[in-house]
Amino acid sequence: MGLLTPNPGLLFWMVICFGVVFFLLAKFGFPVIINAVDKRKKYIDSSLEAARQANEQLQQVKTEAEKLMAEARAQQAAMLKEASATRDRIISDARGRAREEAQKALDETRHQIEAEKESAINDIRRQVAVLSVDVAEKILRKELSKDKEQLEFVNRMIAEVESSGKITESE
Amino acid sequence: MKRIKYLFITAIALMVFATGTAKAEKDTGIDVAEIVFGHIEDSYEWHITDIGGKPLRIPLPVIVKSSTGWHVFSSARLENGAEYEGLYIASEGANAKKIVERDASGNEVLPLDISITKNVLALFINSAILLIVMLSCARWYKRHEVSKGAPKGGVGMIEATVLYIYEDVIKASVGAQYQRYAPYLLTAFFFILENNLMGLLPFFPGGANVTGNIAITVVLALFTFVLTNVTGSREYWKDIFWPEVPTWLKAPVPLMPLIEFIGVFTKPFTLAMRLFANLMAGHAGILSIVCVIFITAQLGAGICAPMSLIAVIFGIFLNALEVLVAFIQAYVFTLLSAIFIGMAHPKAEIEKK
After folding, report:
1. Is A1 an interface residue toward B (CB < 8 Å)?
2. What is the number of structural domains in chain A?
3. What ipTM was predicted for this assembly?
4. Which domain holds residue B308?
5. HSE (side-chain half, CA atoms, 13 Å) at A156
6. How many domains does chain B have?
7. Of A117, B88, B188, B229, which residue has the fewest beta carbons closer than 10 angstroms?
8. Which residues 23-52 of B are in CB contact (within 8 Å) with A?
9. From the CB of residue A40, how many other CB atoms can be counted at a distance below 10 Å?
10. Which pLDDT value is given to residue B18?
11. What is the DSSP string of B71-118?
């Protein structure tokens, strides 16, 4: 068979073969592959987009969490500060009140002591007065048992009164 | 025709070994031209190998419509020039190696011959393999969800090749309507590639010189031709019959339109010739190199051993080269078809821009 003359039988079979292959592949072969690849491309794109969004959201959540943490920390610090201030105030209040109480108690005690002292002094004074009156009575009684002495006494008394009056005048 | 054959063989012979060896081939009885062209050309049987001097061949069905009606029988009946139902294989003349019958005046005439020849059977086998490979690939996509990821292994390889042709050749060359032509161009690419590669296998079911046969490439080129011109836009036809050249070039003598019009046919013609010539030459080259071993075998071990070594190394090199050529020719055919189709839609391209 000549090399450069197409054989009609081969032409015929080639048209049939290629036609059938073309029909089948064009219908069930290549479109399926290309569509699948296209779909996969879209899927990858959408996956990347989703991943990007998720990442973004994660970032957002992270910053939010950080913000919350910072807020909480600030709140904590404030609370601690307040608590310590309260504590200090309570302590100082208590201290002040204790001091006042102590002062009051001290004062009262002092007053009491003063009063006791006064009453004791008064007591002593009264006793001394009673004693001295008693002593004076006894002395007088003894003295006055004799007329002469009685007279003398009267005189001395008068003199005493006079002198005391002079003193008052001179003053 | 014969002169071309001999020129071809001599050129290859000169390229590889000394002229002395070429002379030897006549003496030793090994007919390189017969071996090479017996392989390159089509035949009614599939000759696989010779075992102990006996040929191992697959007889193929002969389907012929002669003057006496349809004849369907095994080619084994026509072996060694036998005649069956008035039909026989012509041994010489213009119809050499074809099934002929004698008309009333005793002249050999060609009946309508659609026999399943070696190339037709190879075409069937290769088409079946291509269909199985591609459709099983397509089935993979139907069975796997998109979210399960990309295919690996063979399907991945096919996918990468499909995408390479689709994105880099078809999308880049055809223009706006590339999706419409993608199935044809992809089919053409894989069909040619598959037949090219199968032709490189040295044993059955490969080894047939399918894409190195002008009938095959002519049909492929015709598909491109029809697709290009049937779907061509109005601007395309206007560019052919009234191109943008100075008026004296197109009227009154339609010089440019004539050139453009011839171009319509030369484009697919070059497609067919390029593919045919490259593949045919590749097969012839490899076979010639292998034949060197058998030619030098009769000249004694001293010549045969080094020549065989050279032939084997050269054969390996040529085979590797042919694998490359198998891809390049499929690629070039697809690329040029895509460009021709793209040129037939100039308006679409402008709109795209």
Report:
1. yes
2. 1
3. 0.83
4. 118-352
5. 8
6. 2
7. A117
8. 37, 40-42
9. 20
10. 40
11. EEEEGGGGGGG--BTTEEE--SSTTTTSEEEE-TTS-EEPPEE----H
